[in-house]
Amino acid sequence: MIITVILTVVLSLVWGSEVIHPPFQTGDCSMCHVKTKDGYSEALTVKVPDLCYMCHPRKDDKKVVHNPVKAGACTLCHDPHKSRTPKLLKADSLNELCLSCHPSIQRLMAKPNIHPPVKLMGCTACHDPHSENNELRLKMPKKEICFMCHPQIKDVRDNSPNKHSALLIREGCLNCHNPHGSDHPKYLKYAIPKDLCLSCHDKVMAREEDGKRIKNMAKHFAQNKDPHGPNQWGDCVMCHNPHGSENYRILKGSFPSGFYSSFSKDNYICFMCHDATPFTQKETTVTGFRNGKLSLHYIHVNKDKGITCRDCHDWHATNGLPHHLKEYTEFGKVKFPLNYTPTKNGGFCGPLCHPRRGYDRVKPVVNPR
């Protein structure tokens, strides 16, 4: 077969822009056609595809066979004599030939974002046009074929301690991306990343690694109308890596997984956007959460068992309370209210953690110890 391909290419150079089928180039039609007293008839010495298989290896010997191959219709796609297209195709390009039978893919080719293998290399970059052992005649299993070109994503999927289950279930990468083309960047199936995420996160889910439950995020956003900035913009991937991460909850930066943690600003993804000053300086006017100049963020986190941002704030969305404060928080299996009440210059809270205490930015409150 390799010799045949080389010969075809050489002959195409010799004969100009045309690719000539070697039997036709020799002028000996008897290799394929029945000889008559007047020359040669259109009748073949052997029916297609058996005639083709006299010189070419079989193309129908794998599990998933392309219908034209299954029907023995080699000449539906290939011209047996000559062509201006490699492989003697009956079209000006590989994609044009494939799209003549696959109109749904043709519509995708009109999208503003076309996957480079489709546009530059053609359909056979991923699919075998004859037969393969994989679904859709893919050259690798559906969940693996993308990694022929994207090995870095495979490394994230396989080696991240916190994996995104979307890469492991059902269609793999194709759960989120269209491999041919899309109206949206990154070949995503939705214009807004948040809408894509909520197409799966519309129910309670269990994490792949440890079975811990993940809340129904669609319901959470429906019930809480004040979204955190990235969620207001519909940009979940501003904080989360959609493929996998070494960080808690597939975050793009560190965040403690427990209720308590010793504080370091390097351990919090929050400080990619938020000023860390109120957490590192005991006295400041940078934050509104202060009693006079005493930073109450500093007081809460800078201790042996400092609490984390998530203990008081919801980083997705809240409903009514300022600064994305939670109405309830959880410690172990206990769920309890923060009992937060805002005032003109401060506020009060009374969770289980400590007695009811207040703060005021103008007239500092004296709280019980």
List its salient traits.
single chain; 369 residues; alpha+beta; 4 domains; three-stranded antiparallel β-sheet; two-stranded antiparallel sheet; 14 helices; 23% helix; disordered N terminus
User: How many strands in all?
Assistant: 21
What portion of residues belong to β-strands? 15-25%
What is the share of helical residues?
A: 10-25%
The radius of gyration is: 32 Å
Average pLDDT confidence is: 91
Structural class based on helices, strands and sheet pairing: alpha+beta
Distance between the termini: 87 Å
Strand order, main sheet: write it out.
Answer: 19-20-21
Low-confidence stretches: 1-16
Sheet of most strands = 3 strands, antiparallel
Q: How many separate structural domains?
A: 4
What is the number of helical segments per DSSP (H or I, 4+ residues)?
14
Please give a structural write-up:
- The protein has 369 residues and is of the alpha+beta class.
- It has four domains: 2-93, no CATH class; 104-146, no CATH class; 148-248, no CATH class; 265-360, no CATH class.
- Helices cover 23% and strands 15% of the residues.
- The protein has 14 helices and 21 strands.
- It has helices at 2-14, 22-26, 50-53, 67-70, 94-99, 103-108, 116-121, 151-159, 193-198, 217-223, 229-232, 277-280, 296-301, 309-312, and strands spanning 19-20, 33-36, 39-44, 64-65, 82-83, 113-114, 131-132, 162-163, 181-182, 205-206, 213-214, 226-227, 244-245, 290-291, 294-295, 317-318, 328-331, 334-337, 341-342, 346-349, 357-360.
- The protein has a three-stranded antiparallel sheet with strand order 19-20-21, with no helix packed on it.
- The longest helix is centred in the first third of the chain and has 13 residues, at 2-14.
- The chain starts with a helix and ends in a 9-residue tail after the last strand.
- The model is unreliable at 1-16 (pLDDT under 50).
